[in-house]
Amino acid sequence: QVQLVESGGGLVQAGGSLRLSCAASGRTFSSYAMGWFRQAPGKEREFVAGITRSGTRTGYPDSVNGRFTISRDNGKNTVYLQMNSLKPEDTAVYYCAALRTDSAWYTASTSSAYNYWGQGTQVTVSS
Description:
This protein is mainly β. The protein has strands at 4-7, 10-13, 18-24, 32-39, 46-51, 58-59, 68-73, 78-83, 92-100, 116-117, 121-126.
């Protein structure tokens, strides 16, 4: 079992940057592909970024591609989300999630594929 704790959210002006962190418990962090999702009020949870177990592959939707970067440090059991050029429409609660997989190349963009979730961190972008 994995416990996930996000941090780094806050209030930022449009055009600014934030870096989110997600710390995972346990000794098997490298067995999990990781993802970031977000959910704005009244909207469905949305995929933001995914990364494979070793960090060799990443994936993003068009809405954040080129602005957001996911990375991980398996030695620190932590996954990061660097968010640049933030827009008011990026305002949401951001969640990290873990997906247990035997594949070094697998990641997923659907929330139902993930086994464990953090509690979320609020990101607010003012115009």
